[in-house]
Amino acid sequence: MKLNNFLISYNLRIVFPVIVSFLLMINFIFSSIFEYNDHIRIVKEGKRTEIENYMNLLIDVVEFNTNNNSPGQIDSFISNISMDSQVLNLIIFSEDGIIKHSNHKINIGENFYDLEADDYSGPKTPMTLINRDENNKFQINIVEFENKIIVYSAISAQIKKNELRDLSTLSIYFEYSLSNLISKEVDSIVRKTWMSFVKVFLTYLLLYFVFKQLISLRLQALLNIMEKAKSGNLQSKFTVLGNDEIASISRSYITLTEKLEKLLYFDSITGVYNRFAFEIYTTNQLSTTKMHRGLVLIDLDDFKEINDTYGHQFGDEILKKYAANIEAYLSLDESIARIGGDEFLILTGEFERIEDLEKYISGLYEHLKTEIIHKGNIIEVRATLGVSVYPDHGTDFKSLLINTDIAIFNAKKEGKNKFLLIDEKVVSKTNRKNQILAILKNSNFDQEFQLYYQPILSVKTNMICGLEALLRWNSKEMGYVPPDELIPIMEESGMVKELGRWVIRTVIAQQIDWMKRDIPVVTVNVNVSFQEFSQKDYVFFLESYLFKHKFDPKLIKLEITESEIMKNLDMTMINLNQIRNMGVGLAIDDFGTGYSSLSYLKNLPITHIKIDKSFITDVPRDVNDNHLVQTILKLAMNLGFETVAEGVESIEQYEFLLENGCDTIQGYLFSRPVPAQQLEPLLKEYVNNPYQFKK
């Protein structure tokens, strides 16, 4: 397993040749060693056989000539044998060790057993240790000793002693050197080994060539294409010829990349570019553009309603037709992509002037007003377009797309079904919003925000009967940020949820402080957004916080607008009833500006209706506004709701409201919103004493 992991951790184009060369080399080495040993063995065996034949002949010669008393023939035969330079010693000696014949004449007459090591290198074997064969003839004993062949044998011969012949035994010692023979054979073997190595090397080159042509080059080509695909380039193609496994992998890869290319670059529903491919296309186009080009974001208006009403399958058909309709308007140097559920992007052609581009967008906008007939119903498909211009609003895809998002966001705020070319004012506004958000995310509410309070006066008594808590933010970095700018940003970011709870906690803490200092307290109205109100734990938070501080629920009143209530009427009704059951008051803020319906109004557990400032501004001068306010007051009276008129700034407005039965007023006529510290004298003076209006 470890070997397998080791091998696959390297490139096959390296591993395979290394393994082949290693195996060939191992085979070559072991083959050479085996061949060497085998060759030397054969040579030695041949020489042993040759020497054994010499010895048999020598024994016969010695035996014959000794018996015939012809020692000269023996010496002559020894001389012939000794002509071979590798014959080191050939000695014939008697039983008592006296040397009778030798290739070294100087040794004749000496005792064999007294020879020095320089003259004799073999072991001195006693005659008695030489074995006899079945014919009682001495055997020829051949041994190897220190790269030499040593021969021991004996001869039974008639030796003349004092004119008498006695049967005696002669011993033969023969010493033959193999060094020169082996050296010659080694030279021969080395030559053969080199020839074998050349054959092995040529075999390796042939195998490597075959491997390179059939495997390595084809794998490398396939790998290069895959590396390009890894970086997002699926257009490169390479076909590996053949019917083997690599060719099969190549064909499978091509099929896979073709399918992947469709998934990666094209929208599955409309067949146009997707965002990934369009970004690559746009980047390439902009790199060679020298004039103005527009990036147009198209967002279908109310497409979710079409999906919900007619089904997603029909919605997909609309997307296909809409994409085809867009493509019909485009020229060859323009392209389209679908980047979201109901969003398309267009990169326009080049324009010398932005004014010409704007005319083009206007024509596109009109062209896209599509009507589709479905089961006899005419469905109007409208869209909002946001446009940014290269290079004025960005020099790359991402910056241009950010600005198209900003443009379309502002276009939708202005009412959808229109197109908006982003300008510096919009960019500046967005940058300011992002700056505000960045500050808010790292802000401490207690340090950043302050509550102002505006008194609410009873029309009948002219005494303060309530307050409205209003948020103020005077940022160190941004300066004063008005609520109508701040609150939408807070709602968009989701921070309004925590801000609303901070307001509740701050209002209760302020009222508790006033109570401790014997300053009169009245009900304080707190504005609540739908995001706060829709939280599952909002009712629990409010109830537990009131209980924790043992605070009278009647001193808190929540204001929520009509439009906020209608966002989820069923859930709103549940929460309103639970809050009202606590004893907390409820008021509809900006009444008359949103969704007004007696069918829901009569069932809401509200206590107050606040008439929007826009209706009060022109009374009593405007007859229509007079009638409208009178109608609202009568409606509230009939339904049992108390009324609060907002934005009362003149004594004439006050008198009109008094005459028509309005319960309370709020506005600059009495007091602007002020911090708690400035409000305290008014509370001390006018909670229990009436305010005298001066005409």
Using brief descriptors, characterize the structure shown.
eight-stranded mixed β-barrel, Beta-Lactamase, alpha/beta, 4 domains, 23 helices, elongated, five-stranded antiparallel sheet, single chain, Alpha-Beta Plaits, 50% helix, 695 residues
Question: What can you tell me about this protein's structure?
Answer:
With 695 residues, the protein is an alpha/beta fold. It folds into four domains: 39-177, Beta-Lactamase; 197-265, no CATH class; 273-422, Reverse transcriptase/Diguanylate cyclase domain (Alpha-Beta Plaits, 2-Layer Sandwich), CATH 3.30.70; 436-686, Alpha-Beta Barrel (TIM Barrel). 50% of the residues lie in helices and 21% in strands. It has 23 helices and 22 strands. The strands form four sheets. Strands 13-14-16-17-18-19-20-21 form an eight-stranded mixed β-barrel, surrounded by four helices. Helix 14 (496-516) runs parallel beside helix 16. The radius of gyration is 58 Å and the shape is elongated. Mean pLDDT is 82; it is low at 122-129 and 160-166.
Describe the secondary structure blueprint for this structure.
Blueprint: H1 2-7, H2 12-67, H3 71-82, E1 87-93, E2 99-102, E3 141-144, E4 148-161, E5 164-177, H4 179-230, H5 245-265, H6 275-286, E6 292-300, H7 303-310, H8 312-329, E7 335-338, E8 343-351, H9 354-367, E9 370-374, E10 377-381, E11 383-390, H10 397-413, E12 419-421, H11 424-441, H12 445-448, E13 449-458, E14 464-475, E15 479-481, H13 483-493, H14 496-516, E16 523-527, H15 530-533, H16 538-548, E17 556-561, H17 562-565, H18 569-582, E18 585-591, H19 598-601, E19 608-611, H20 613-616, H21 623-639, E20 642-646, H22 651-659, E21 664-666, E22 674-675, H23 676-686
Helix pairs in contact: 2-3, 2-4, 7-8, 14-16
